[in-house]
Amino acid sequence: MVDPILQLMELPFVRDYLQRVGGDNAIQVMRLMVEHGNAVTDEEIAQEMRVKVTVVRAVFNRLNFWGIIDYDKTRDEETGWYTYTWHIVPEKIKEAVEKELQEREEELRKKRQELDQFMFFVCPEGHTREPFEVAAEYSFKCPICGKDLVPLDADAEKRKIDEQLDEIWRARKLLNEIVTDAEEVVEELPEHEIDDALQTAEENSEKENTE
Ligand SMILES: [Zn+2]
């Protein structure tokens, strides 16, 4: 099965997001990290990408700033040099993408609602998109190029929005497939410790409820 993180990175808006936070090379770097079993040095990635190691380090630093990747430091006893191996942090990428999804979903639903509520007019050249009242103030001429504004095809717009909402749904499904370290730890705990942990969680939620 293809790693869900790799699949996630195929989705256009996840790509956009990762490129925004990690720079243009972020996707390629992260893909190589996954392919290397998530324990990789900057030199290894730089070699495969045939770029300077500073290029990879810049991506690492940016992604690390957002917590999406992290490193382990080990010291070579003979040379005294430190080696940094980097890995993706699954819980962080889940968290970050979910936040991105929520914002995007909200925006799309709002847009979809507006299409039901208002009639929009657009410039055929894509300069402007205005509700009826504003378009009327412009005498239905584009304020930028002067061309006649035309009514927006709301159904086509809605179909586009629905496709994007479907993409969000697919992304959520993939997010659920990403196993985080936290989940693995819980599974490895002996049963009585899981019971204890659950009980503590229950007690805490009861406390919250009574407060
Ligand atoms: Zn125009």
What keywords describe this structure?
binds zinc ion; 10% strand; mainly alpha; two-stranded antiparallel sheet; 64% helix; Arc Repressor Mutant, subunit A; 5 strands
The parts where pLDDT drops under 50 for at least 5 residues are none
Average of pLDDT: 87
Shape estimate: extended
Going by CATH, the architecture of the largest domain would be Orthogonal Bundle
CATH topology title of the largest domain: Arc Repressor Mutant, subunit A
Radius of gyration: 24 Å
Largest sheet: 3 strands, antiparallel
* Helix proportion range: 55-70%
Can you count the helices?
10
Supply the CATH class of the largest domain. Mainly Alpha
In terms of topology, how is this protein built?
Layout: H1 4-10, H2 12-22, H3 26-35, H4 42-49, H5 53-65, E1 69-75, E2 82-88, H6 90-117, E3 120-122, E4 129-131, H7 132-137, E5 150-151, H8 154-177, H9 181-188, H10 191-210
Antiparallel strand pairs: 1-2, 3-4, 3-5
Helix pairs in contact: 1-8, 4-5, 6-8
The structure holds zinc ion.
Structure description:
With 211 residues, the protein is mostly helical. It has two domains: 4-88, Winged helix-like DNA-binding domain superfamily/Winged helix DNA-binding domain (Arc Repressor Mutant, subunit A, Orthogonal Bundle), CATH 1.10.10; 93-177, no CATH class. It has helices at 4-10, 12-22, 26-35, 42-49, 53-65, 90-117, 132-137, 154-177, 181-188, 191-210; strands spanning 69-75, 82-88, 120-122, 129-131, 150-151. Strands 4-3-5 form a three-stranded antiparallel sheet. A two-stranded antiparallel ribbon has the order 1-2. β1 and β2 form a beta hairpin. The structure holds zinc ion. Residues 123, 125, 127, 142, 144-145, 147 line the site of zinc ion.
